[in-house]
Amino acid sequence: MENDRVEPTFSGVRTMLRLPHVPEPASWKAGGVAVVGVPFDLAVTNRPGARFGPAAVRDASFMVADLAHYPTGVDHAALGVDTGDVLLDLHHPYSVPGAITARVAEVVAAGCLPLSLGGDHFITLPILRAVAAHHGPVALVHFDAHTDTWEPIATDDPPSGVGAGPADLNHGSMFVHALREGLIDPHRTIQVGIRTFNDDTRDLTIVDAPTVRRIGTEAVAARIRDHVGSGPTYLTFDIDFLDPAYAPGTGTPVAGGFSTGEAQDILAGLGGIDWVGADVVEVSPAYDHGQVTALAGATVAAEWLALVGATRTSTG
Ligand SMILES: [Mn+2]
Q1: Computed over its alpha carbons, how large is the radius of gyration of the chain?
Q2: Residue 280: C-alpha distances to residues 82, 96, 181, 192, 252 (Å)
Q3: CATH architecture of the domain with residue range 34-314
Q4: 142 alpha carbon – ligand 1 mean position (Å)
Q5: Taking the complete model, does pTM exceed 0.90, yes or no?
Q6: pLDDT for 237-281, tens place per residue?
Q7: CA of 280 to the centre of ligand 1 (A)
Q8: Domain map of the chain by residue range?
């Protein structure tokens, strides 16, 4: 192909934001971002389908990748690699958490920042196991309609020899496990956009949906920055933080959420944080319309990449 032509947005093999597909850890460059697809959706409580999320977000990301990030001008394509998807054996579901942890551990060991595409929200637990093994307990910045701190239904150990982790593959209780396993620092964790009742919030700090609306996006960002302070911080973004009008394609939609633009405004205010990884989860394309949700997912991921890219640029 002529090297003076730019490939149009509708053309080309789909990787996240057109990052090069580099599955071999030996070829990952320290300091870069490594995108990890996690096509897992056996832990949902309502609609399935998030196993198709990574593919849908990658597809929609080509529109986002067409130009540098606005307004920073950060060039996503220079920030790292797309490692492909974690190889998961869904016929042996208890093998899945260990497979996710092992793959993300490779990313962290290479000195890269994992950017994972879900998959349902359960995947954040095995990801955090790899991240915390390297960094220690991290601050969690958690955008969601749900706290995901409901008491686990089953706490039995999984059948022996089939991988690490709790037996309850549940996308509503994994942060209880994260707390009990010491993966996240409860004092530096903050949940934003919550609008579902939970009588045990584990004493975590919550900026719920009515509060977000009342104080505005700028103040929300300031509150997040103040709360996490310095130290390693991980972003987990459930796409159902957005209102179903902006993200219909998700497993457990809840009315009363936020626009994609409001999410962008908050994220844009989260520079200067010591980011060690991020995920965007719960995009379920079968319930989507016109790629609305997939584009939102790709956009959220790109906003976080711009934060990471801007930090790297400003610190040389
Ligand atoms: Mn949720």
Answers
A1: 18
A2: 15, 18, 22, 14, 15
A3: 3-Layer(aba) Sandwich (3.40)
A4: 10
A5: yes
A6: 999 999 999 999 999 999 999 999 999 999 999 999 999 999 999
A7: 11
A8: 34-314
